[in-house]
Design a protein that fits this description.
globular
Length: 116
């Protein structure tokens, strides 16, 4: 059975915490390449919502998501880089997910702060 896109991203995010440079660099490159997948932002939000995932990885998912949203939410890029459109239904889902993470009482404090 093939791994889900979410599982793949979780693996990449975990590898960004590696002390070894090669796996860390490869994970960063793989995360960048994965941005073109339309489910990228929603999958990151889902990873950040999973209580079974370590706080460090959940925070990493939120950091990558924030960078992605900062670069692509407006629908154009000031820096000349390609912009990846974020569909309106994905935007609505992200708003709800971030609100839930930022205000949820059962969410780890560090993750809650990262979601804000």
């Amino acid at each position: 059975m093939a791994a889900s896109f979410e599982d793949t991203l979780l693996h990449f995010l975990s590898d960004t915490h590696s002390a070894q440079e090669a796996p860390r660099k490869a994970a960063e490159a793989n995360l960048k390449a994965a941005q073109s997948n339309p489910s990228f932002p929603g999958s990151l939000a889902a990873i950040a919502s999973h209580g079974s995932v370590s706080s460090d990885v959940r925070q990493s998912a939120l950091l990558v998501l924030r960078t992605f949203v900062d670069n692509n939410w407006a629908g154009y890029s000031d820096g000349g880089e390609d912009c990846i459109p974020i569909e309106e239904n994905v935007r609505e889902g992200l708003r709800g997910s971030m609100l839930e993470l930022a205000t949820g009482a059962d969410v780890d404090r560090k993750v809650r702060n990262a979601a804000r």
